[in-house]
Design a protein that fits this description.
Largest sheet: 7 strands, mixed
Radius of gyration: 16 Å
Number of helices: 7
Number of strands: 7
Helix content: 25-40%
Distance between the termini: 15 Å
Structural class: alpha/beta
């Protein structure tokens, strides 16, 4: 199932009272390619910061890592670098904008390497969230290699979020663990709203209802 968020009504989404403990670690992959632009990348950063505010962050709760990617991916900070919500949010808001091409497969492969060599994996697993406005410019085999590398890491759920009009929905479906893990957002202005971060947080495995149905907001 594909979950669509209409930016004009995003502010009407209700705040979730779900328990945020036991959510595992969170690794965010932010598209920092040239097609996004400085202003929209600021909005993407704001979304990621808002999202982290939805969870309990700390060594005994959820740890957070961030990768930005363009032609090459860059690990901005690892899961063990920061231990408080405030520090993680500050690091996200100061993350670099690369303004290069788009290499999604390389970003997924770096995510797999980052998670595979953690000394103390979270027993509650990890959610990898990819945020992109376009599609990879790599060859299909490079993208597939990244997808497969991440699938070999135990306890990983991959969510893929497309923003705007130019992302490749089939590509997002191939990256995500299931169709339920694919999210569509109309534009970056909508993405940056706190209510959208709450909506996306409620799609994380630890906050999903036991029975889910297709949800579309128009």
């Amino acid at each position: 199932m594909i979950l669509a968020i209409a930016a004009l009504l995003a502010s009407a989404l209700a705040f979730s009272s779900a328990n945020t403990r036991g959510c595992g670690d969170i690794l965010i992959l932010l598209d920092a390619s040239a097609s996004i632009g400085d202003f929209q990348f600021d909005l993407s950063r704001q979304f990621a910061s808002n999202l982290i505010g939805e969870f309990n962050i700390g060594p005994e709760d959820s740890r957070v890592g961030l990768i930005v990617f363009g032609t090459e991916p860059r690990l901005v900070f690892d899961l063990t670098d920061y231990s408080s919500t405030q520090h993680v949010q500050r690091a996200i808001l100061n993350s670099p904008y690369l303004s290069t091409s788009t290499a999604t497969g390389a970003a997924l492969e770096l995510a797999a390497i980052t998670l595979r060599y953690q000394d103390h994996p979270n027993p509650d697993g990890v959610t990898v969230l990819l945020v992109s406005d376009g599609h990879t410019l790599e060859t299909p085999d490079v993208l597939l290699r990244g997808i497969q590398a991440l699938k070999t890491v135990p306890g990983v759920t991959v969510m893929a979020l497309g923003v705007g009009d130019y992302y490749d929905l089939d590509e997002l479906r191939s990256i995500a663990t299931s169709d339920y893990d694919v999210v569509e957002v109309n534009d970056f202005k909508g993405l940056s709203k706190p209510s959208v971060a709450t909506y996306v947080a409620d799609l994380f495995p630890c906050r999903r209802p036991e029975t889910t149905t297709t949800t579309t907001t128009t």
